[in-house]
Amino acid sequence: MTSAEKLRTPKGRSGVCTRDFGTPCAHEHSCVRCPQLRPDPGQQPRLLEIRDNLQARITEARREGWRGEIAGLEATLEAAEQKLGAMRQLAARHGVTHLGMPEFRETLGRTAT
């Protein structure tokens, strides 16, 4: 299995693919480079790991002179950075608000004794 296939496996999803069900997709699952991927903020550590791996692979490709590989990896790295930014924005917008426990005493006509 190639590293690109590992990024697309159901076990390793980074979010939800917003592509319509039944439409053709070469990725089959949520791929980091796919513009249809809606990132899941809970998967941020995994995407950070993917980003770090991509950076290491780019360094290796430069060392070995694999120019075609460099271009593809850099495109994936750029997409991963965009997804991480989207995850940070989503996490900042959707914080947890504690609403407390509702009081029903007045509604039931009872008072505390």
Characterize the structure shown:
The structure is a single chain. The chain is mostly helical. Helix content is 51%, strand content 5%. A two-stranded antiparallel ribbon has the order 1-2. The N and C termini lie far apart (69 Å). 16% of the residues are buried.
H/I helix tally: 4
Instruction: Report, as a whole number of angstroms, the end-to-end distance.
Output: 69 Å
| Oligomeric state of this protein | single chain
What is the tally of beta strands? 2
Q: Give the rounded overall mean pLDDT.
A: 76
- Strand content of the residues, in percent? 5-15%
Q: In what order do the strands lie side by side in the largest sheet?
A: 1-2
Q: Strand pairing plus helix content: what structural class?
A: mainly alpha
SSE run: HEEHHH
The residue ranges in which pLDDT falls below 50 over 5 or more consecutive positions are 1-11
Largest sheet: 2 strands, antiparallel
Rg, Å, rounded: 22 Å
The portion of residues assigned to helices is: 40-55%
**Outline type:** elongated
Which terms would index this structure?
113 residues, disordered N terminus, elongated, 4 helices, mainly alpha, two-stranded antiparallel sheet
